[in-house]
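Hi again,

Forgot to attach this to my earlier email, sorry! This is the prediction with heme C bound. I've pasted everything inline since the attachment limit keeps bouncing my files.
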Amino acid sequence: MKRFAARIFGLSLFAFLVLAVAVRPATAQQDQPTIVHHRLIPAGDTCATCHKVIYDQWKASPHGANGIQCTVCHGETTAEDFAGMPALSTCATCHSDQVAQLKSDPFMKGKTCVSCHQAHIFAEHQKAPTAGE
Ligand code: HEC
Ligand code: HEC
Ligand code: HEC
Ligand code: HEC
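Structure tokens for the complex follow:
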């Protein structure tokens, strides 16, 4: 009976681990964007109306400074292919070296760009603002 219980425990642990590994990539950046439907945007609203914190982070980032708009990475919210999670191929249009390295370097296994560069701040580590700033 004890062995049976241990086996059940082992099995469910295994199933959990398999699930955890199988499910995780769906929430990470992939070659294809994760397509979602965005709610309708009232006339006169901009992205900043509802996503103020993200907008401010983006505005202060190298992307904001270089005019890389929200829609460059996410597409138009009205479009069928609106990207809730932009694809690696989107980053590759401007950062092909980094995407190539991510895919080939064993050290990068399981990582995506946002593992190291927080989305919208997208800062290099050395330049990242310290807490409280
Ligand atoms: C009227 C308010 C409103 C406006 C304007 C708006 N959004 Fe959103 N957006 C939301 C809400 C609500 C959600 C779902 C909750 C959340 O994740 O914050 C959302 C979710 C998102 C998501 C995450 C989608 C997902 O589920 O993974 C992205 C990306 C996004 N918005 C981008 C944009 C962009 C880009 C613009 C400008 C073109 C924009 N939004 C304008 C309200 C808005
Ligand atoms: C350089 C590409 C890029 C730009 C430009 C960009 N985003 Fe994103 N955005 C991403 C990535 C990548 C993610 C997924 C981040 C994650 O899961 O950690 C994301 C996720 C989101 C989400 C859902 C997750 C969250 O953090 O709530 C929202 C909402 C969003 N972006 C809104 C915006 C808005 C609004 C702008 C413009 C002010 C914008 N994004 C500009 C790449 C970008
Ligand atoms: C349309 C072109 C474009 C796209 C698409 C784009 N970027 Fe950028 N990115 C830039 C530019 C321009 C800069 C600022 C100049 C530079 O440092 O090369 C930059 C800078 C960066 C930096 C360096 C920040 C720093 O502190 O110097 C990171 C990290 C970054 N991008 C990540 C991403 C990621 C991740 C994606 C995809 C989600 C992405 N970018 C998509 C154009 C782009
Ligand atoms: C394992 C962590 C890690 C991952 C994953 C990662 N980066 Fe970086 N990235 C860094 C570090 C650390 C720096 C700054 C040090 C340097 O100059 O190499 C950097 C620098 C950059 C820069 C500034 C230019 C440069 O080469 O110095 C850009 C742009 C960039 N990364 C884009 C990306 C993109 C796009 C992805 C996804 C394809 C990505 N990074 C994935 C850690 C990472």
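The CA atoms of residues 74 and 103 lie 22 Å apart. The helical segments are 2-23, 47-50, 52-60, 62-65, 70-74, 88-92, 96-104, 113-116.

That should be everything now.

G.
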